[in-house]
Amino acid sequence: MSDLERTAKKYYQELKETSGGTRDHYLALAYIMKEFGIACDPALVQVAFANPEYGINAFHFDKERRNLYLLLASFSSLVDQIKQPLRQFVTAGVEKIFATEKQGGSSDRFSNRLASCLLENNALIDQVYLRIVVSGDLTELEQSEYVKNLLEQLEEKKFLINRFFNGRNVRFTFDQRSTSASDIGQTGTTSKIYTYDLPIERVLQQTGPAGEQMLIAFMRIVDMLTMYRDMGSRFFERNIRYGLGDKGYVNKSISKSFHKIIMEGKEPPGVFAFNHNGVTIAAQEVKCSGKQCHVVSPRLLNGAQTITTFDTFCADNNLSKDNPDYDKSRKTIEDIRVLCKFITDAEPAFITTVTINNNRQNPVAPWDLHANDEIQLLLQDKFRTELGIYYERQKNAFADIDPETEEGITEKKEIKLLKLAQTFLASDGEIKFLGSLRDAFEEDEIYEKVFSPSRLKEDFRRIVLCYKIQFRLNRLIKEIVDKGPAKYWYLRKARNLLWALLCQAVLNDEKLEELSGNFGTDMVMSSGFTDYLADISSRRCRPLIASLEEKNADKIEAGDVTFLNKDNAFTFCMSEAAEKWEWRKKGLR
Question: What mean pLDDT is predicted for residues 439-447?
Answer without folding.
Answer: 88
